[in-house]
């Protein structure tokens, strides 16, 4: 921290903006609250005087603000600023903040409290804090369970460095949101101009050769090893490093249903699908690469395989119950560790490698044939109403081929279909929304904000769509010129709820009478119509023949700068 001369009128709002500028935040994602007038005044002054500051996004819902910061952070991998309103705004956005924690996205979230309730010197914060907005212990107490770190800035003079500390903690592994309560009185207090030092990227940790060499020897001796990964692709360079490692050792890679991003090309001959089940008894070595929860139930351990965990922070502090059955840990930077292991792929037993490569070639060919067969059957269906979801995913894949597109997925019962038939093959080309449903549109908007000209597609179920703050999301899309293609897999039912009811009570009263509660969505209007007041492109599709042309028109509209919503009535 260095002393500088404060400018006339400098206060805590200036201190906060200066701090976010110093930590390298490109954006302040704000869902407005009455405490942020000092920040708005600072931004207005900086805009007037041509001074640097993060770009401010005025958003009309907390989930949209946090979700967009999440999407932007998935691509940029750097902490951004999020401003919410008091404890109620924090509570409204808490699901999305928790989603950012699960997704491993760094951000600094702030909201406010009063410390004087009008009884102290200085400007009156307003009676609403005394009557309605205050919460026992302050909002930083509320934020503790769903953030990496949560505290209060107690002085305008420490505020800039507190923001720096929050950003540094958010950025370090495991990355995630940090929360800072900034009381309104602090924002209004005169600031002496002491600024925060610019944020420095985290240093990297590396597994030593003494740790890596024995693991390389385990791989060399293994007859039937397998890699299981959930989030290798989330690390900078992790996708490419995993491909190089798998190719060097000729090891198949499984992306289980719990995978939250693209980690390995689904078109690659070494991609071994999403089912870890066949490997539980067959594998003699399982390499868990950035894999927080590979086994379910957790007590389901491999019958004979040794387990090596490759993860910078293998024991996730926010996971309540986590079982890895590890025999060895390599806890350095994942991409670096994989590169070290790839270099050690020497003196291999070529006969053993040939055997497992032949087996994987057979698995891969069988999967290719199964995908092709499923798509052929989907195309052959001649229904008068409804489209097979396999055909929706396959058509999207064909239309996105060569377009460098990104898919954000908030489907539930169709998520396996989406992953299997989209067959994404590039880094940062697929993200699955984490935490509770209702964030997908916002996350996709944030991804688009970071991705520039790359087309961004959101695949979403009708149930998840209704959880989203649709109107505020569409407002953000239009206001900030962030066009998306939104494809709704609409089966007119909360199917996951219905499946559990049938699973738990197969011969129950509901099965006998047909009274399935908590599931019916037929009463909803056509979902694409919500976009019409915003002048967006809308389509409703209920036949296979109409699907391809509708998606083509929608993608054309997106390329021309407007969000397009295609509501596809699917058969299941």
Automatic annotation (TrEMBL):
It holds the Pfam family TPP_enzyme_C. It comes from the Bacteria. GO terms for molecular function: acetolactate synthase activity; flavin adenine dinucleotide binding; magnesium ion binding; thiamine pyrophosphate binding. Residues 11-120 form the Thiamine pyrophosphate enzyme N-terminal TPP-binding domain. Residues 213-341 form the Thiamine pyrophosphate enzyme central domain. InterPro entries: DHS-like_NAD/FAD-binding_dom (IPR029035), THDP-binding (IPR029061), Thiamin_PyroP_enz_cen_dom (IPR012000), Thiamin_PyroP_enz_TPP-bd_dom (IPR012001), TPP_enz (IPR045229), TPP_enzyme_TPP-bd (IPR011766). GO terms for biological process: isoleucine biosynthetic process; L-valine biosynthetic process. GO terms for cellular component: acetolactate synthase complex. Residues 414-568 form the Thiamine pyrophosphate enzyme TPP-binding domain. Keywords: Thiamine pyrophosphate. Belongs to the TPP enzyme family. This is Thiamine pyrophosphate-binding protein. It comes from Streptomyces asoensis.
């Amino acid at each position: 921290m260095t002393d500088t001369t404060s400018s006339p009128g400098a206060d805590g709002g200036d201190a906060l903006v200066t701090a976010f500028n110093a930590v390298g935040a490109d954006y302040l994602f704000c869902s407005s609250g009455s405490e942020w007038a000092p920040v708005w005044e600072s931004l207005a002054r900086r805009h007037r005087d041509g001074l640097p500051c993060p770009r401010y996004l005025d958003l009309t819902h907390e989930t949209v603000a946090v979700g967009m910061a999440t999407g932007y952070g998935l691509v940029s991998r750097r902490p951004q600023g999020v401003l919410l309103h008091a404890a109620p705004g924090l509570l409204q956005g808490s699901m999305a903040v928790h989603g950012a924690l699960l997704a491993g996205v760094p951000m600094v979230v702030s909201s406010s409290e009063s410390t004087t309730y009008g009884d102290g010197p200085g400007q009156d914060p307003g009676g609403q804090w005394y009557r309605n907005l205050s919460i026992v212990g302050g909002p930083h107490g509320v934020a503790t369970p769903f953030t990496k770190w949560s505290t209060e800035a107690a002085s305008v003079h420490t505020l800039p460095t507190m923001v720096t500390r929050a950003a540094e903690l958010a950025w370090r592994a495991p990355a995630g949101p940090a929360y800072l309560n900034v009381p309104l009185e602090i924002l209004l207090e005169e600031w002496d101009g002491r600024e925060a030092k610019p944020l420095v990227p985290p240093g990297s940790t590396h597994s030593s050769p003494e740790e890596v060499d024995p693991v390389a020897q385990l791989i060399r001796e293994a007859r039937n090893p397998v890699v299981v990964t959930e989030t290798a692709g989330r690390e900078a360079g992790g996708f490419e490093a995993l491909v190089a490692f798998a190719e060097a050792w000729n090891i198949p890679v499984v992306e289980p249903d719990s995978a939250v991003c693209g980690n390995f090309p689904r078109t690659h001959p070494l991609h071994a699908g999403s089912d870890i089940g066949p490997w539980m008894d067959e594998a003699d070595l399982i390499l868990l690469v950035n894999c927080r929860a590979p086994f379910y139930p957790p007590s389901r351990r491999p019958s004979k395989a040794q387990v090596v965990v490759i993860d910078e922070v293998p024991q996730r502090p926010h996971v309540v119950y986590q079982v890895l059955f590890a025999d060895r840990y390599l806890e350095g930077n994942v991409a670096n560790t994989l590169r070290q292991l790839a270099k050690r792929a020497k003196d291999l037993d070529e006969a053993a490698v040939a055997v497992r490569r032949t087996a994987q070639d057979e698995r891969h060919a069988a999967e290719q044939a199964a995908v092709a067969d499923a798509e052929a059957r989907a195309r052959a269906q001649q229904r008068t109403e409804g489209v097979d979801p396999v055909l929706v995913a396959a058509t999207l894949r064909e239309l996105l081929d060569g377009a460098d597109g990104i898919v954000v997925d908030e489907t539930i019962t169709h998520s396996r279909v989406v992953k299997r038939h989209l067959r994404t093959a590039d880094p940062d080309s697929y993200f699955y929304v984490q935490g509770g449903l209702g964030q997908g549109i916002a996350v996709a908007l944030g991804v688009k904000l970071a991705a520039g000209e790359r087309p961004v597609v959101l695949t979403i179920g009708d149930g998840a769509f209704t959880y989203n703050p649709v109107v505020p999301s569409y407002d953000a899309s239009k206001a900030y010129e962030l066009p998306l293609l939104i494809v709704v897999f609409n089966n007119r039912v909360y199917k996951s709820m219905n499946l559990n009811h049938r699973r738990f009570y197969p011969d129950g009263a509901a099965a006998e009478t047909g009274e399935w509660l908590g599931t019916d969505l037929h009463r909803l209007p056509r979902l694409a119509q919500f976009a019409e007041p915003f002048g967006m492109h809308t389509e409703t599709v209920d036949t296979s023949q109409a699907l391809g042309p509708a998606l083509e028109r929608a993608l054309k509209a997106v390329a021309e700068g407007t969000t397009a919503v295609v509501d596809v009535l699917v058969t299941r």
